[in-house]
From TrEMBL:
The chain crosses the membrane at residues 6-26. It comes from the Bacteria. This is Uncharacterized protein. Keywords: Membrane, Transmembrane, Transmembrane helix. It comes from Actinomadura decatromicini. The lineage of its organism: Bacteria, Bacillati, Actinomycetota, Actinomycetes, Streptosporangiales.
Amino acid sequence: MSVSTTVLPLAGVVLGSAGTLIGQYLSTRVEARRARFEQASAERSERKAALIEFLSAAQQVELCLDRLSMGERLDDSEMWQHLHALWLAKKVPELVCSPPVAQAAHDYTSALHALLRGHTPAEGTPPKRDLRFAFLEAARRELGTANEPLRRDPLARELGE
């Protein structure tokens, strides 16, 4: 009788302690997973904000290029202001995004800069449209939304019509 009175309470203490330790372990694992998810979500938001800021600055330069192509004249101060904003915005993806996105942003920025300054692209240099597309595809991969490349040609060309 004395063995059961000693062993049963001891077994209860061991089982209770084991349950507590397992519960703490599982709770810690879940909390660590949640922390990783929240950190990844914050990083993605930061990257997205950087990409939007860059695209906004690039769009302003594209607008200036469109105005120039329609024969409108730009003030030098306006041109320099947009170029400054573009180069500044390009640096943010360099800080928070992967090297492929940073390089694509740099290439696109260089092309926009040259075009706005009136320089003709060097032979063999991809056109601005291709550089913009390369940047967007790199950005989509960075954000995890690039299942397949965006279709850039009209559907009729794709179907061979």
